[in-house]
Amino acid sequence: MARSSSGFVAGLTAAAVAAVGFLAYQASANVPDTLGKPHAAKSPSATTSKAPRDKKNPAALPARSGTGERVVYSIDDDRVWLVGAGDKVRRTFKVTPSAVDPLPATYTVTSRSNAVTGSDGTPIEHVVRFASNQGVAIGFSAAVSGSTARPSSAPKTGGIRESREDADAMWDFATIGQKVVVIK
Is the pLDDT of residue 21 over 60? Predict the structure, then answer.
């Protein structure tokens, strides 16, 4: 009898291991592949609708653009705000948009490169990446030449161009993990 009991236990154990393996496989097949990819974090403080603007001062920080230290990027206004502690604007500046815009959401800076060649062949510096859309990595950068011309749309690029001075300020402010709020 002892022999048949151990066989029964071994059979139950094998069935349990197989069931757990199957459930683990099903769970892993339904998880989105975001490992190493920039992604948006859920944020109740940022909105996808156009944030109200101060008509008297268009460079004023838009309402409903988040809280705390952050970079705010307005797609519609082509403007960036570097916001420090106490929601104080440290710097604001105009940018030249990329061919592919990030979706309105809250992101974090995921990678940085001091100097590289952009996907359009332009030497760029102080690249601060925070999102992706349509398979294109999106970030802020400055052309080494100082040009703020719109990056080429073929191939699709995600480089939001800044002046070299503004890129220096972004580089110092937006380190890995820094919040980036994208609004319309």
Answer: no
| Cα–Cα distance, 90 to 81 (Å, whole number) | 8
Question: Is the bond leading into 97 cis (omega within 30 degrees of zero)?
Answer: no
For the full predicted model, state whether its pTM sits above 0.90: no
- 7 domain residue, yes or no: yes
Does the pLDDT value for residue 50 go beyond 70? no
pLDDT for 25-46, tens place per residue?
Answer: 444 333 333 334 444 444 434 4
- Locate 83 and state its tokens: 């916001």
Spell out the alpha helix ranges (H) of the chain. 2-29, 164-173
Write out the residue range of the structural domain in which residue 11 sits.
1-31
CATH of the domain at 168: 2.40.440.10
**Greatest distance between any 2 Cα atoms in the chain:** 90
For residues 57 and 51, the answer to whether their CB atoms sit within 8 Å is no
Percentage of the chain beyond pLDDT 90 is 56
Q: Please check whether residues 19 and 78 belong to one and the same domain.
A: no
